[in-house]
Amino acid sequence: MTVVHYVNQFFAGLGAEEAAGHEPVRFDGPKGPGNGLAGAGLTVDVTLACGDDHFGEHEATALATLLGWLDELAPDVLVVGPSFGSGRYGYACGVLAREAGRRGIPVVGAMTPDNPGVLAAEGAAFIVPTGSSVAGMRTVLPVVAALAARLAVGEELGSAEDEGYLPRGLRRNVRAERQGASRAIDLALARLAGRTATEVEPTGDAVEPPPAVPDLEHAVLALVTEAGCVPQGNPDHLPTRHANVWLRYPIDGVASLGADAYESVHAGFDTTDANADPNRLVPLDAARALQAAGRFGSLHEEFFTTSGVDTPVATAAKFGQEMAEEFREAGVQAVILTGT
Amino acid sequence: MSSTHADLAIATFAIGEIVEGTQTGRDGATLIVSPPQLAVGAGEPALAEATVEVVRPGDRVRIQNVCDVVVPDVRADDPTDTFPGALGTLTPAASGTLHRLEGVAVLSTCDWERAGYVGPEELPDSLVDMDGPGAALSPWSATANVVVRGVPAEGAPVADVDRALRRTTLRVARTLAEMTLGATPDGEHRFPSLGVDGSDLPTVVAVLQVASEGPLTDTFLHGWALGDLVPTLLDPREVLGGALVNAAYDWPSVRNVTATYQTNALVRELFGADGERLRFAGLILAPGYLDTAFEKQRAAMLTAGIARSLGADAAVCTTFSSGNSHTDTMLTVRALERAGIAAVPIVAETNGGLTDHVPEAVSIVSAGNEDELVAGWEPERAIGGDVPVRSGEPVPTWAYLSATVQTGDGWLQGVPA
Questions:
Q1: What is the ipTM of this complex?
Q2: Tell me, what's the pLDDT at B1?
């Protein structure tokens, strides 16, 4: 097992503020709090250190040097800090944690919940919450050592609450002590007694409605759907569910989507009615009528389509970004997105 | 709670071991299963073949294309009444005495795609692993399973095949439970009629959401498809007594199987707490997966109206399947809350969080994240297919039958990590 520990100039014994500009350096064996980790059963093989100011001012090069060492050492676990309430030190710990995490190295840190390092880590590290003072070192090191030792042997950690680390923005499944029915009844009775609690909340990723299109009579509109509308026979093999692509089909000069030419391959709803009139998937007939009446300028030359069935939000967000980029370049000012 | 002859009594018989033999029978806690004998009983023209196989926890087997799960039940008063309407004579399921085997389940499997009834990926993989990491996810990995494999007869209409498979599965379940007739049970649970007791305990109702969209996505009440269901007050003991039968084979981890109704945790918990912590005022059977906004809002409104007429202070709202139906659940929560009833929905999460949400839903039970990947496993063999699907590959939780069921029967919960 290989354990690597990252500390700043002070904890590496290089000096205090006067050494904050120290460039990255590596030592065999533990330094400073690394000895405390050893005392708690986690033997540090290599210590990496960097001055806090140096990291902040030369992040790219400092990070490259540190990651070079990590790639060479391929540790089973990386411990960063504890950095307590120190913003600069915490930030360096968080950034290194994020990059190590992306390389598949388990990372454990310790800092205050409001330390900028928590955000910088982007959920890649198990961060034990601390107070702002270094005085908490003695109590936090055994917790850090225990988590790191388990991660190093490939053990999966339990929930943030059970294990005592800060939530990383992820959700994972655990086996509850009681079935959902019993928990639901408790929540209902608690609510009636004035104690509202919940097991899950919405993510809060709400999209702000954009301002109204200022000059609709001259605007370019586009049609987008997740209803799985494709030419008959699905020539480009749009998946019926779990779609990992979106497709485009030309509508320049097309007045209406005929039932003989288009269909829905969406696996999430009964497509009988939609297939009888594919304009109900992509409202081309209505758009052409409004266009003829001068309600808007013109229609983008292609409609975009995918099948939105069990699509991970990340995939859907990526589709949206790709489409938005194209539309922006094409001067499209508004999109009618038909969902199912 | 007083006991009367109008109670539903469920007498339980624990099965510790299941062995194969030439004659189906029971010897104490040992169930003897004769696969050919059970399969021969099929006699359904819409099935070309029906075979029966036995698997036990710890077997290196992946059961796939799983359609339904049924707990072996028989009506001790008259076995021909078992699963009224679906298999037996139409009689109330809410009273009388049932004999029920514990530790055993009857699973039905059918490869609808191979038989040409559905296209590729139209019905997602539906798995029960008897060992490996996935065995922790499905409750049907922990039961000894009698697996019915149905092969459709050439050219038979899909509704006929499904009905034949359903009846065969229910018949096997009944036959196994019949081995207990005349025997002394290990335990008995009594469920009396619900009544107004004048107490000032908080009044709670259950909202049981079901969906019925046609063959392979149906739910049956007394053998009748619930496609035109409007929210209905149903004696909750009908649910436990075998009146509801599943025939929806989509989205394995979040749909309800027949066993989910027979052993429904929410109904049992509410009966258990009745008169102690709360007053259980009734169960509303409500439709989900409705097509239009109007239908969704109407169903939500009607559910809230029934709940209010029952004097409900609180409601627990279950959810059937994923996506669309989460909007039905959330609109129902909104309607209940606006009627002054505290509503607690039970929903599964996805990697993207909640599928739908209304601000009125402030107390939500998580049934777990259906997108979480489960480590790969290599089964030795498959049942319900020739070779194991997804062998050695990570499997999403949604593929494991009942893993994130949203009726309150599940044990999974999503937590911050």
A1: 0.97
A2: 43
